[in-house]
Amino acid sequence: MEFARHHVKASGNTTLRGFFASENVDYDPPSLSLRHNIKKAKCRYVYSLASGATDDDDEIAIRDAMKTSENSYELIRMVFAMGGWSGIDDELEEAMLDDVARQISQVLDQRDYVVYQLIRRCLFILDYNASPNLGDVFAKILQWPVEYQAAEFDVILNDKRADLLKGIASATLRHRDAMVNASLILKDVITAYDNAAPYRKDDLIRLMHQVNYTRRICASLEMLRYDDLYNVILDLADPAITDARQRQACHDALKELTLEFAAAEGAVKYAGSNEAKTTVGRFMLARKAALDNFTPAAPPATILAAIAAVIAPLAGTLADLKTAIINLPDILTATLSLPSLTGSDEDDNARHLISEAHAQGWLEHMPRAIKLRAINACLGGGDIIPAVDDDDEIAINKVLAAAKSHDQAELYELVAGATWESLYSNIDGDEYDALETMLNQPT
Question: Are residue 205 and residue 175 in the same domain, yes or no?
């Protein structure tokens, strides 16, 4: 309530009626919503500060208003009020734009992440850093009257499934911990659905397992660590996993994340050590063998034999195969390094990685950390005095454009990570115009 009083007083009024009729909310079409009018008042405030000459205090006030906004409509309208990214850059110090970019990324995630959409629809979120999780959503829907459940399940399975899984994969590869935690579905929830047998039970249970496999796989790919990825493919060869829905979900996750696997493999191929390349190559052979030999009716022994044939021909049991994997001369229990993205040739190697990733269609599926390393390599050049040429600028823009096309929030996250000051200082001409156009107005 104190927040509302602040805006009423700032408008020169003492009543909500006066506030609603004031110039402070004369920014967008009239509204009778207090929340909406407060958003409009904040946009008007930023617009007023930027419309004349701005001193240091004005710049700080604009920056603080934007970086504390928790609403996507409000912040995107603020960007518009400032004249887009170019207008913000004209008004604020370059370093201030990193805070703005981070907050744009945050509110876009809060708006677009399907997990959060479902939580808001079925529960509530007071703190996005400690929100309920997707399992809580499914548990809540199971408490609804049966006649209302079917329509909701159809929406989740038919309309939201693809974006749900894509969003979880992206959040995990971007190492967005709060978002990843929000996608958790505990085993007890899956068991409850099995026991209650609601409408489309099998489809729902398969989706829940796939959500968990997607998060698990992408967590390993984000780290470039392959020990648990072997455990995932061995679930297809495990006779103890008798639930066909879980086995199908495991297969579907391994298959549908093909571009994410290719991106990790490609990053190692073009920037990793020979030992790292051998590690990833051997795993990809095992993954291919598992997928090629999987059918819903295929017994686990068939998958086990197929995997063993390509990495451990003498393994006859699951225990033997696990032991053989542990004994492989590979880097399995540590993050694979990318030494080619450091040193005197880092910009050349980064450009080569970006070019191949773009040509092969998996640039946008690379982990955020690798994208950022490639951008920074192009910006640094490995020279005592960094020299960024047109090829570097084009490569940087390819990474940012790919990120925007796949997950708009990642674009602004990468800009903040590389720092706007560094991008602004090193990119010019047509490439700068293209960069500014990309950033100018969030959708």
Answer: yes
Q: Are 105 and 416 in contact (CB under 8 A)?
A: yes
Cβ atoms 24, 7 nearer than 8 A? yes
Question: Whole-structure pTM over 0.85, yes or no?
Answer: yes
Domain co-membership, 88 together with 133? no
Is residue 343 located within the same domain as residue 318? no
Cα–Cα dist 326/321, whole Å = 9
Cβ neighbors of 195 (< 8 A, separation 6 or more) are none
Residue whose entry in the numeric block shows the structure tokens 């982990």: 367
Instruction: Please list the alpha-helical segments (H only) found in 92-182.
Output: 96-112, 114-122, 134-141, 146-154, 161-173, 177-182
Domain limits at 67?
2-93
Q: Is residue 109 part of a domain?
A: no
Digit-coded pLDDT (tens) for 19-77: 777 777 776 777 778 777 888 888 888 888 888 788 999 999 999 999 999 889 889 98
- Biggest alpha carbon distance in the chain? 83
- Domain contains 331: no
**65 shares a domain with 33:** yes
365 and 232 fall within a common domain: no
- How distant is the alpha carbon of residue 352 from its chain centre? 24
In a domain, 299, yes or no: yes
What one-character-per-residue DSSP string does 276-330 give? HHHHHHHHHHHHHHHHHH--TT--HHHHHHHHHHHH-TT--SHHHHHHHHHTSSS
Between CA 243 and CA 209 the distance in angstroms is 11
Residue 235 lies in a domain: yes
The rounded distance, in Å, linking the Cα atoms of 420 and 90 is: 13
CA distance 412 to 368: 12
The number of beta carbons lying within 10 Å of the beta carbon of residue 112 is 17
Is the same domain home to 235 and 296? yes
Q: Are residues 322 and 343 in the same domain?
A: no
Same-domain check for residues 193 and 317: yes
* Residue after which a domain boundary falls, among 278, 293, 326: 326
Residue-wise pLDDT for 250-280, tens only, equals: 999 999 999 999 999 999 999 999 999 999 9
CB proximity list for 318: less than 8 A, separation 6 or greater: 234, 237, 238, 239, 300, 304
Question: Which two three-digit tokens encode residue 85?
Answer: 């990214």
The DSSP 8-state label assigned to residue 337 in this structure reads: P
**For tokens 């990825």, what's the residue?**
229
According to DSSP, residue 159 is labeled I
Give the residue from 33, 58, 93 where a domain finishes: 93
How far is the C-alpha of 304 from the C-alpha of 39, rounded, in Å?
A: 58
